[in-house]
Amino acid sequence: FGRPKYISNLIIRSTPIILTGLGVAFAYKTGLFNIGAEGQFIMGQVLTIMVGTTLNLHPVIMIPFMIIVGTATGAVWGGICGYLKARFGINEVITSIMLNWVALYFNNFIAASEAFHQPNSMASKAVAENARIGLLSNWKMSDEGLETLRQWPYVYDFLVRTDVNFGIVIAVVMCFVISYLLYKTQKGFELRAVGLNKDAAEFAGINVKSSMVQAMLISGAICGLAGVVMLLGTSPNRISQLSAFENHGFNGLAVAFISMGSPIGCIFSGLLFGGLLYLSLIHICRCRRRG
Questions:
Q1: Which residues pair with 123 in a beta bridge?
Q2: pTM of whole model > 0.85?
Q3: Which DSSP letter does residue 127 get?
Q4: Could you give the CA distance from residue 195 to residue 208 in angstroms, rounded to a whole number?
Q5: Closest CA to 53 of 132, 120, 170, 121
Q6: What is the arithmetic mean of pLDDT over 16-35?
Q7: Strand ranges in 82-183 using DSSP code E only, listed in sequence order
Q8: In sequence order, what are the residues at sequence separation of 6 or more whose Cβ sits closer than 8 angstroms to the Cβ of residue 70?
Q9: pLDDT tens digit sequence for 187-230
Q10: Are 9 and 265 in contact (CB under 8 A)?
Q11: Whole-Å CA distances, 123 to 50, 186, 220
């Protein structure tokens, strides 16, 4: 990590798992185990692609709209598990695992469909350029931008050689928002009370079933946001047909538990895991070169 581009890539790798870790940590604090973060992440990306390749609006409208679409999709995907738990008592682990696979195959269906498929590839079309959240993405690749940045080699290495984007800002802000929600609001107190003791919470007048659904809606929304941020922020800004999970959601489980369910702790555990993932990628690339 002695070069700026390595720091930049660490941040890029860490951003989605900070958010999925935050989603899992939130559910855990409310007494639920959201193992479906992977599926919510995928669905957030899929619906964003479907809308982002169809619409072509001004960036001021397009970017927030894409974020809302992906976040809402993740919320619905998580909310299904919460509803089944509250209404029928079906364990959220079982339903979320099943929905993970539904999401994977729906991703493959959309990526291969005629409306969204990129010819001569195994991927979908890319989202419109005005929906992307890269940091100075257009300016830094222009002649003027390159000439200016070359005067500062470290900044050039950090910006030009990577897909650094505003996603890390969104992730950090969300960690503080969720921390405030959990520990400084009445709704957060109610959700944590349900997680600690459902019977006592119900005796105190808290609607336990409604709290379960709300918790999974919020948890799924955060994981869906993770998918949107990665899709809009990193090249090639598209989804591919998957033969297996990419583990952004499953890595989020480790991030959540290493942070002991702390929303702020997810920032640091996410950076730790992002560093480990990036180091492993560098090691694999070096081994292949030697081979």
A1: 240
A2: yes
A3: P
A4: 9
A5: 132
A6: 96
A7: none
A8: 44, 45, 47, 48, 224, 225, 227, 228, 231
A9: 999 999 999 999 999 999 999 999 999 999 999 999 999 999 99
A10: no
A11: 13, 45, 25
CA pair distance 289, 138, nearest whole angstrom: 32
User: Tell me, what DSSP letter sits at residue 262?
Assistant: -
Burial 17-34 (b: 16+ CB within 10 A, else e): bbbbbbbbbbbbbbbbeb
Sign, CA dihedral 64-100-177-278, equals negative
- 48, 124 Cβ separation under 8 angstroms: no
Decide if 40 contacts 220 (C-beta within 8 A).
yes
Query: What pLDDT, on the 0 to 100 scale, is given for residue 2?
Result: 67
Sign, CA dihedral 55-56-61-63, equals: positive
Mean pLDDT of the 183-189 span: 95
Tokens of 48: 């964003």
Residues 6+ apart with CB under 8 A from 151: none
CB neighbour class for 157 (10 Å; exposed up to 12, middle 13-18, buried from 19): middle
Q: Which two tokens stand for residue 212?
A: 């379960």
Tokens 């929600």 belong to which residue? 181
Rounded Cα distance between 205 and 283, Å, is: 55
- Write the CA distances from 83 to 36, 73, 152, 212, integer angstroms: 14, 15, 53, 8
Is the pLDDT reported for residue 137 higher than 90? no
Quote the CA–CA distance of 264 and 177 in Å, as a whole number. 10
Would you state the structure tokens that stand for residue 119, as one six-digit string?
Answer: 């010819």
How many C-beta atoms surround the C-beta of residue 87 within 10 A?
11
DSSP assignment of 158-181 equals HHTTS--BTHHHHHHHHHHHHHHH
Question: Does position 1 have pLDDT exceeding 70, yes or no?
Answer: no
Q: For residue 26, which amino acid is it?
A: F
